[in-house]
Amino acid sequence: METDLREIFECFCAEGTFLRGEPFGSGHIHDTFRIETAESDKDDYILQCLNNRIFKNIPELQENIERVTVHLRKKLSNIPGSDIRRECLQLIASKEGKSWITDKQGKFWRMYIFISDHRSYNIVDTPGKAYEGGKAIGRFQAMLADLPGKPLHETIPFFHNIEKRLETFQKVINADPLGRVGNIGDEISSVLRRADEMKIILRLGREGKIPLRITHNDTKFNNILLDRNDKALCVIDLDTVMPGYIHYDFGDAIRTAANTASEDEKELSKVRMDIELFEAYAGGYLSETCNTLNDTEKEYLAFAPGLITYTIATRFLTDYIDGDNYFKVHHEHHNLQRARAQLKLVESMEDQYREMKEIIEGLIKDKRQK
Ligand code: ADP
Ligand code: GN1
Ligand code: MG
């Protein structure tokens, strides 16, 4: 059944009149539309049909986002010169006073103000942009450190837990519902032979050496909007904001900000981690967080990009074997292509691990001297 976007839009208390709605962005999870309004002095909107196969409890998900955005707005209102409507996501209430609606087919929808005049990048081509991304995530974590009230809901349990991800990987290999396992032996062994070393962050957490903080957990670079001058503007996609280790945010941002190619690049020789982009992102991130991170957190920052890139490679490969039930795909072997590109990126990170460590140590030393 064709969705009538105008009808959905009119369930929310928006200003302005519906003019048109078009699919927007390149997210892998929800169905996202930009709604243009007829009046030039009124905001446009982002309307999203939420993926409730992945996010099983939409009221809890929305409650998290309401709390996080209220808190961020309060923080921004204390910073002179901040542009609150563009520096923080703004949910639009439904006419029933909730932050989401369900349509006739039982689908869940929510609406945000469209953040005007932003830049969004799937590939980052200058250290300046990477630095700004690092600053945005560092600031985001710092602003949420004193979120009042009960802990946030865990919207996807064990989201970055590599032990659980590897158990699921093994289960789908055993089930092999589409008979795909036979053709991907190299990729599977590439995952399995690294399994042990990847559990270190979880071990450090269990030993109490690194704390759970409020983290974003999906810091892909296109979830960080920049302004027209490529300065940090707004961190979006708040669905997975919940307790986590800072390594997850740092790692996922490097996975995307410092990759010289697309996440799903077919030509593997184009895929590598650019060390200059790494340094720039790390510099931006540490400019906001260096004083709050503990020594163990800092010591393992250079390890994080390899871990998260490996985790996401494992998730793409799991989804491929399972028959593409999780990530949106645009062709038959898309998840395999993504997994291969991510595994290539893991290798490049491994090759440059020593340099990454030295860079982080240097940045921390510089900050101490200032
Ligand atoms: P997904 O979880 O599917 O990635 P996102 O919430 O990240 O969904 O939204 C998908 C895309 O829509 C983003 O990458 C961004 O390009 C765009 N987008 C989302 N929210 C806004 C907003 N408030 N203003 C402008 N663009 C937005
Ligand atoms: C998804 O929602 P989006 O497209 O920003 C995924 C991330 C993956 C990413 C890989 C909730 O992010 O975990 O890293 O794809 N989000 C969820 O591109 O699973
Ligand atoms: Mg997104």
Topology:
Layout lengths: L4 H5 L8 E6 L7 E7 L7 E5 L8 H20 L6 H4 L13 E2 L5 E6 L4 E2 L7 H18 L17 H14 L9 H8 L7 H7 L6 E3 L8 E4 L4 E4 L6 E3 L1 H12 L17 H15 L5 H5 L4 H19 L11 H18 L1 H17 L1
Antiparallel strand pairs: 1-2, 2-3, 3-5, 4-5, 6-8, 7-10, 8-9
Helix pairs in contact: 4-8, 4-9, 5-11, 8-9, 8-11, 9-13, 11-12
The structure holds adenosine-5'-diphosphate, 2-acetamido-2-deoxy-1-O-phosphono-alpha-D-glucopyranose and magnesium ion.
CATH architecture of the largest domain: Alpha-Beta Complex
Tell me the name of the CATH class of the largest domain: Alpha Beta
CATH superfamily of the largest domain: Aminoglycoside phosphotransferase (APH), C-terminal lobe
Report strand %. 5-15%
Instruction: Give the helix level as a range of percent.
Output: 40-55%
CATH T-level topology of the largest domain? Aminoglycoside 3'-phosphotransferase, Chain: A, domain 2
| Distance N to C terminus | 61 Å
Low-confidence stretches: none
- Average per-residue pLDDT, rounded, comes to 97
For the biggest β-sheet, the strand order reads: 1-2-3-5-4
Helix and strand pattern: HEEEHHEEEHHHHEEEEHHHHHH
The shape, in one word, is globular
Q: How many domain modules? A: 2
List cofactors, ions and other ligands: adenosine-5'-diphosphate, 2-acetamido-2-deoxy-1-O-phosphono-alpha-D-glucopyranose, magnesium ion
Summed up, the helix count is: 13
Q: How many strands?
A: 10
**Which structural class fits the helix and strand makeup?**
alpha+beta
Radius of gyration: 21 Å
Q: Report the major sheet.
A: 5 strands, antiparallel
